[in-house]
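Notes to self after the call with IL:
- keep both proteins in one doc
- input above output, always
- annotate only the second one for now

Protein 1:
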Amino acid sequence: MSARKRITAISRKNEEGYSRPRRKNPITFNFEVNEENKRGNFPIYLRITENRKHRRYRTSIELSRKIDWNRLAQEIRTTEPNAKKWNTELEKLKERAKDIYRDLDEDGVASAEKIIEVLEGGEKSMSFYVFAEQCTVDIYTNGAPETYLKYNGFCNKFRDYAKTRNRTPEDFKFKEITPEFVTKFESFLHTLPNQQFSKKPDEQLKRKRKSGTEVEPNKTRLHQNSIAKTLQIFRAIMGKAVKLGYVKEDDNPFRVYKIKMVPTHKEELTREEVLSIIGLDLKEGSMEWHSRNFFLFAMFCAGIRISDLLTLRWMNISQDGHIRYEMAKNHKEQILILVEPAQEILRVYRQRFTQEHGSEPEPEDYIFPYMINTKDYAQWKKLTTLRMVDELPPEQRMTYKKILSAKTALVNKGLRIIKVKAGITKPLTTHISRHTFAGLAQDIHTDNSILQGLFKHSSLRTTERYMKRFDTASKDEALKEIIKPLTGKPAKRSLAEQLAEIPEADLRAFLKEYNKKKK
């Protein structure tokens, strides 16, 4: 089901009152008498059957003789003096259980466990999954499509997990969401394939599928950090449930359940690898030519994110040689000096715009052409501030987000071509430009607080994950200094530096041979 149809369906349920599809196997109610208890009596139980599984609620009635129970007639025989009175009580109990069932079923939370809970004096409440879906819809309608995709992904995984338990997702109530439940859910997540490898096959794999060649199924599982992000959504939903009173704070499993993340290595390019990309002879106007320009411009501008880069306007360039823009991720304003290589890229795109359109670009025109070539360019051109984007109707904002994602994928496709041509073995994506800038900064500076200003991280600790040292008093001068090694010829290395790279064993052998010849 598409996102639009899913939202429409859930919204309709909210308007009309949530109703579940009619059950193929409705819950049934019967009485039964089990073995005698310690007092020598035989208690009567209300047996509630759901999907051929039995749950039992103990009534207050106990028989002194098991023979006094008529199993087929579902009543106490008249041989028991209290038969009439007790049969009436049992009938009332069954009717009450059925009423509870009907009420819960209308709310979409009916289950044998829930019926017993209410019979024991508990209150009926919305199921966890129904609440999670409602949170997802609220996020969508409040204009946060990026967050919606994360919540929707969680709901999809939870629904798949319910299938492994032979239950509908709506059946899971908040009472069941315990640390043990979260543990089992996390174990399930470890069995899921990594969609990144399933949905984005390489060209060789595509050709195999097209030719009908048998392709091995994807065996790559979700990374631990991807699982942790899913559990973080789980935790956020439970936190909202606590605030709204669906769950007591003490019953929130994430009070004790710890989400585990593992350290990851942030790939970055060396100076020599960046220079090899700069030195490539690429056809002007080609996809890889644009991708290289975007990658380098992002790096020259302190690792500007690709979504921010693609939506830059000429109005973001100031007369004093700075770039000023609002970051989409945290809505913080960023002001950076445009170093000479970045200015050169801007001159190229200004010239191309003038040649293609016969006039200079207007302030609100996009700098880079990928957004210009979209279907609804005239509509997007009017969105000159993030506030205007935030105020779009949810469906339009989702479309805007999908366009940016598609353009980012196009840039990364060009970078894969560049990677091969430059002989680079590391991953090469738009975000690597951010890591690479951090690596260049690490080689030169020592004060993290300045780099925090360049990255616009909310926390200095976030910056420190990118690098270890940084040391200047001015962001402008710092940026110039960081980029400087990419603009000149490689510096000559001393003999000591070159010798330090030779393995010790080779160096000893060389000295031994040298001394022989010297004698």
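Protein 2 (the one to annotate):
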Amino acid sequence: MVSLSPSAIGHQTRQAFGLAGLAASVLRRSIGRRFPELAAEDRLAMVPKAAPVSAPISIRWNDHHVPFVEATTEHDGAVGLGIVHGHLRLAQTELMRRVAYGRLAEVVGEPAVELDTLLRLVDFPRASEASLALLPDETRAWAEGFAAGITAAAEAQPLPPEFDILGITPDPWTVGDIFAVSRLCSADYAWRVWRTLNPLREHEEWTRMWADLVGVAAVADEDIPVGAEALDEALPTTFTHTGSNAYAVAGRRTKSGAPLLASDPHHIITTPNLWLIAGMRTPAVSVWGFMIPALPIFGVGRNAYGAWGGTNLHATSSELIDLTGETLEERETTIAVRGKSPRTVTTRQSELGPVISDAKPFRMKSDTVALHWLGHKPSDEFTPFYAMMRAHDWPAFEDAVDAYALPGLNMIWAGTDGTIGKMIGAHVPRRPLTTPADLVISKADAHTQWANLLTGKDLPQSVDPEEGFVASANEAPVDPPVTISLFFAAEHRIRRIVELLSARTDLTLDDLKGFQLDVYHKAADTLARRLVGIAEGIGRTGPVLDAIKSWDGQYRADSRGALAFELFAAPLIDGLEARSPHRIVSPYWRPFSRLTRLVDAATEADLEAALGEALDAAEAPFAKTGTWGSLHRLRLAHPLTRIPWLKTRLPALDFPSGGTNDTLMKSMHPFTQKVHSTNFGANARFCADLADIDETYAVLLGGQDGWPGSRTMFDQVGHWRRGEQIRLPLRPESVASAFPYVTPITPVEAA
């Protein structure tokens, strides 16, 4: 569940998937091809009729292509879930597997060699063999069944059109493949921050800037570049679970008297979605939830006894370690290149990890810095989620989360017994509660801090708190015993959640669904009032100022006030930066923090001058743009639309979007006067009422199916925009009624 998005990777990946990067055979396969529209029944006809199960299973489907697997054993249930993943997202899972292994050049040729070299250096599968040896027999059987299910779907014909376009065929899936993808999804959030900060370490004011960043703005929101190329730049960690809101409300604050839970993950916005909705029933468990394609876990879910959700902890599960003078090992690896001879590349390794300073995207000036990552050590992330799926109460949930290592998560629980709780799921080094002198530490410090890791039960948690709710929005933990990270999310979202949950004692599931749509930005509202006062004090008037003055702080798509504030803020930042005597180091991924720091640091004269210039600069775009949603868009498109000759043949949606970087309905963007599409934010919603096992709901931004042209590729967009969710019942008779389309699957021997 889960982070590296360097510009060099973006450049190489854009080449790899651009016109020049694809082999001529791909061009021949693609020209003239159109993707016919497929009804759900046509797609369901492609589900394999036989699989390696011990007894017949069935998969029920609703009108949105949402599946519910019914099996007589958990192994067979895992096979069914694997079939679901392979049926709905086979091309997506194949991409994830190739990224995890550094095998993109096999598909797109020479332009991907440098990217594959980086991926081989990071080596996501490095700990596979040792980690798989840790799996208990039950977990191993579960994972093997899941892999067998994906393979069964891959062996069914026809394959998704992406395979024909790229001229590839899928290999059988193994538990090792699943683990490699799991570690890809566990890429450390800190890698993004390091990549951004490393160039600043050569700046003459680095010491001051580092102190400012850690001491004043030691928080960092999701570092996803905003722009047309953003998905490419984030490719190696596209699937990382990097944001989110999650909260549980105790029965004394709900109308029903039972707990409620809501979870809305934040992710790269693309089609297909980076989640899929699935459910399963076996004699041992009934469960609904969100699954990451290619992984046999319910990252967000609900069983008969409780519900869970989570957010990224932003824990630093890595260190950059200075290995000056140490003996390093050189390893050769061979990269297959489409249309060319294989390329042999050399990477440098150490006992503590790969020499990451050899990778250009990390922007390291030293040539002997190693990446020491928890993901390169053996651990078992499957068993904790397998146990969570079957948890009956808080102690069982707590034990499951305690065993979980990475990526670090804040986990939320709500039980039918009335218990609510929050705890950290992570294994973290014993870093002192002091600010480090630099990003890079010594080998001796690494050995000391990593000798004995803390687990979830050693870290802050809250069970049945007095306030009657627990919540997380990637904020810093309260009173941790060690330094978990220096870079957490800003507190705007968590404060808004607390404000909303504290105001009522009769909350319903509909209220929580409404909170997931909330677009109020209190800090922006407050700052707007302050700037309006200054502008009026110097005699400024005009339509931009009038719109900001009447603005209610809501980033609705139809808001003129939000538009005016954003069009005004972009030139205001430029003007204040030009007048600032010092470089402000609030990271670019925190645009609002950058704005407030500049305003607070400016002299009265500089602020008045920059404010006047900004109002003038905003007048023309404000007159022509109209509303926030006219400027701030949401675009859903298949990644293959980046190939010029496929762009017009693939469906895409583009529509106005509300929200901003710091609202509960997160929708990231820079301060800009240009029309733009958000590429990161809320991409799924989940709600559960523990009073009734049939009262679970979910929706995806987009749809379930990854097959180009499928009717269910975008069919949940209307629900998403209207704030509606799909009901996911657990009672057998309710499932039978709501999921009427049945795919029977027989054992292979009986086929």
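Annotation: The chain has a mean pLDDT of 89. The radius of gyration is 25 Å.
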